[in-house]
Amino acid sequence: MDASLSPQGFYDDSDGITDPVDDYDYDGFGNMTSDQNKGITGISYNQFSLPTKIIFGSEAWKIEYLYTADGRKVRKTAPYLDSAIDGGIGARTMDYLGGFHYRTAYCGSSRRPRAMWTSQKTR
Fold this sequence. Notes:
mainly beta; 7-stranded antiparallel beta sheet; two-stranded antiparallel ribbon; globular
């Protein structure tokens, strides 16, 4: 039982009568390829079944991941709203290296990229 004291767990909008369509799709390897509850319209995977691209409706709203050959995540690129960019959607990059996270940021109105880092202990 969770904090809501609801014994049935996750409530899907499908009751089999008003919404008979499954909200999730999977590929032949058992990887989820879409999730209507979260607005995910496509998920691409690499040969190790790690997600490389998650699309939320259109290519403008996607999260992309890059991994090393042994499966460690080294980069994540995600969209964000930015009125200073044509189209209003920018991309923010987070690089992961040796326990440090490097985030791409911009210096004021010059839009020159600079790296910021934060340390995250992993255990």
